[in-house]
Amino acid sequence: SSREHKSNFKKSKEVCLSYIQDAMLQKQWKKAAEFMTFYVESLEKDFSTEYMGPSEMIWRIGTEILCHHPRSSMKEFNSFIEQMKTLGVKRYLKVCLEHAFHLLCNGQIDEAYQNLSLAESWRFGEQTVIQDKEMKLIQAYRGLLDYYSWCKQKNILLEHGQDGFEDLSVEQEMHRCFRKAAVNLKEIIKIPGVWDLFVKCYVDLLEFYGDHNEARQVLNEYAYNSKFPANPNAHVYLYQFLKRHGESKKSLISALKILHDIAPSHELMIDFNTMLQKSKKRKKRRLGLEVIFAALDYAGWKENVKAWRCLARQVKQIAISEKHLDWIKQEWNSRKSWWPAFHFSRYLAKRDWQGNESLSYEKALVAGILLGKDCKYFKYVSHQGCKAQVKRFRILKKFVNKHNPVYLRICH
């Protein structure tokens, strides 16, 4: 019957699609391409299928197969994408954008720029308004390519400037690219979102032409506007800008404080800790200890010698003065149940000693103060250091033995 035929036809399409997906997962691109051909043919025979559904599937799957197929060429890919652009106006701009990305990945920058320019001139009734965000993305990426051209012209001028070479046409082309790039980049970063690359390029343009106030305003807006999602990089860019322009320590600390709240494991926490330790204010030194403890909570920091040196230096100062032992106690209370196994096991002591003597020294000092002279990590490292007749390890052992009462005060 007609109903049974339609049911079987639907099942065969679903089975074919599952074969395609399995082949892609196993990276069997030739097999996936064969099944894809059958799938497209079946859709052509299926008059009941809604037009908009399969077309996106064909676009997504077909693009993936062509990107990985060993016998695929740019000519075939371009031909396929051009066909996909005609399948549905709702996805026209998205397909154009993906086409531009593929061209860029294959080094065809001029072709990508032309593709984006054509997409920017596209109009289709109400769809133009509906796809306003996609259109802004098209314009923004074209702005990035204008920025790329600006960089090329700038480098030509800088290279030849030392030889007294002056080419007015190069300079004019450079300024033309700047104006085009600035307009499009400025527009996209007004929309709440994550626009790291666009912001960096726009700020670079502004700084080159000496518009530091505008650059600062852009970075402040990107970092502090509540409409934008929380983004560690926004505060990194602001901090780097402030540092480049010799801003006060107060401004730098303020920028890094928010970065610490969002991403306590960021690599700039070393800089943050160093600045805080140099402060005369007790509150900031206390924060410095909190910052470095928090960073070392993350596995990516376990072998960071600089981080352990920062913590060892501050812990040592507190142990000698016996002031602010409560700072260490507060930080240690929430970690004493898991840091010994995470950082200070005998296995880690052996591995660290064999791999990095400086790391094992800094960690042993911290372990000795936090866990006492009977700590497995401290005992192993100090024994190996003294056995190897390394002077600083003998001094380390004496220091920890002398200040063992500090451990007793911290742990109780």
Automatic annotation (TrEMBL):
GO cellular component: RNA polymerase I transcription regulator complex
Taxonomic superkingdom: Eukaryota
InterPro entries documented for this protein: SL1/TIF-IB_Component, TAF1A
Protein name as it appears in the record: TAF1A polymerase
GO biological process, one term: transcription by RNA polymerase I
